Amino acid sequence: MLERIDTVCMKVNNVQRASDWYEEHLGFEVVFRGEGYRILHVGDKGVPLTIEEGEGANKEGNYPIFYSNDIKETYETLKGKGVQLGRLHDDGVNTFFDFFDADSNRLQVCHYRE
């Protein structure tokens, strides 16, 4: 019946500004432009991120978690770009940190041994 997650959708206040932020700060690629939304390609595989213009930007509710092979390098790169970051956590199994986009949406990066 259900085959996979097609996309993760997140509300933003201004789709063009948000799209520019994701391209500039995270290196995402816009693969489709629709009226009031964009679909962004994340990394070399996986589930795309769809950003939709609308009320109720996601401050603390649901949020995407991105995986990084080198989380410390990712943390430092985002820090160097002026991205708002939480602290780096390590629970012994998973290393992770929160960060926030231009609309203050919460996002997270994690790393664990595969």
From TrEMBL:
Gene3D superfamilies per UniProt: 2,3-Dihydroxybiphenyl 1,2-Dioxygenase, domain 1
> Which Pfam families does the entry mention?
Glyoxalase
Top-level taxon: Bacteria
Domain VOC positions: 4-112
Q: Which InterPro entries match?
A: Glyas_Bleomycin-R_OHBP_Dase, Glyas_Fos-R_dOase_dom, VOC_core
From the Swiss-Prot or TrEMBL record, give the protein name. Answer: VOC family protein
Query: Which species does the entry assign this protein to?
Result: Pontibacillus salicampi
